[in-house]
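Subject: design request, 306 residues
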């Protein structure tokens, strides 16, 4: 019995060869194997509950999109008797889906591209000059905008965009770029501080200008943060309802979330057609994620490791 216990507690030959002959090091490694080797049922149960908070509404949305109003009134959780696409056809016609998707796509792509280009340049200028008082004050000025809720400034913004004839897609793209500036600067500057300045000094000694240094060295190194900012901006611009509602005056140029508002009336709501429209609105972003998931996940992971 004693010999068996001694064999269990003694380090394995492979661990001895790796320098784990020290009893303290061996004890820590065995403890680490115990933590990660056993199943943590409390964490697993919490993960299951959190997953249900997403899966249950998604299931309700999918089954409702294929039901008739009579089936929905009978039971909200039961599967539809027939998987008909009539609700999707109705939603396609009522929302003018191709035109709304094109408008939303133009605004989303424009907001994402201009946000990445402009916000990264502003953050680079601030991050490399934080030792100067004016740049430090300017940084805090931008970051302070995070604490200003949009409803407070909504009315002045609406009036200014109307006076400047920016109550259209171009004005909407400009507002997305400006309103994302505070949060994006906070993320970009913290990342830029971790990039060694010796890289820029070496490039400057080889004759590179400040513009060349930014585009050839800094901007490629910002790819993990560009992926994160791009994802957040893309989702925000695609799903946003409030800004298009108050800025766009021409209803023929409404975005897809605005077009879905036609399903909600004063006295009734067509839930099956509404939920079919919601699934159609999710579809383009789902396709983007399926195509770009490799770059999205790698960008986020590299950003977290940085």
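Subject: RE: design request

Done. Sequence follows.
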């Amino acid at each position: 019995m004693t010999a068996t216990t001694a064999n269990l507690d003694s380090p394995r030959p492979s661990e001895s060869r790796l320098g784990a002959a020290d009893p303290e090091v061996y004890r820590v490694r065995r403890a680490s194997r115990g933590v990660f080797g056993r199943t943590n049922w409390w964490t697993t149960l919490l993960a299951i509950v959190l997953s249900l908070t997403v899966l249950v509404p998604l299931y309700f949305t999918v089954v409702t999109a294929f039901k008739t109003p009579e089936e929905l009134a009978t039971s909200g959780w039961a599967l539809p008797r027939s998987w008909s696409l009539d609700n999707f056809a109705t939603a396609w016609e009522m929302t003018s889906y191709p035109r709304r998707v094109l408008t939303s796509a133009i605004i989303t792509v424009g907001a994402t591209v201009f946000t990445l280009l402009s916000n990264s340049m502003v953050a680079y200028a601030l991050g490399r000059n934080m030792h100067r008082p004016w740049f430090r004050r300017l940084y805090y000025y931008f970051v302070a905008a995070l604490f200003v809720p949009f409803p407070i400034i909504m009315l002045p913004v609406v009036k200014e965009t109307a006076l400047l004839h920016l109550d259209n897609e171009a004005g909407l793209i400009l507002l997305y770029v400006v309103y994302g500036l505070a949060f994006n600067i906070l993320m970009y500057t913290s990342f830029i501080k971790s990039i060694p300045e010796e890289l820029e000094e070496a490039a400057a000694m080889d004759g590179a200008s400040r513009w060349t240094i930014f585009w050839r060295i800094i901007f490629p190194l910002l790819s993990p943060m560009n992926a994160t900012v791009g994802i957040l901006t893309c989702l925000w611009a695609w799903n946003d309802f409030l800004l298009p509602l108050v800025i766009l005056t021409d209803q023929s140029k409404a975005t897809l979330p605005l077009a879905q508002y036609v399903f909600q009336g004063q006295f009734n709501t067509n839930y099956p057609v509404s939920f079919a429209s919601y699934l159609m609105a999710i579809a383009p972003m789902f396709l983007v994620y399926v195509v770009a998931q490799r770059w999205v996940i790698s960008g986020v992971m590299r950003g977290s490791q940085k």
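The two ends are 50 Å apart (CA to CA).
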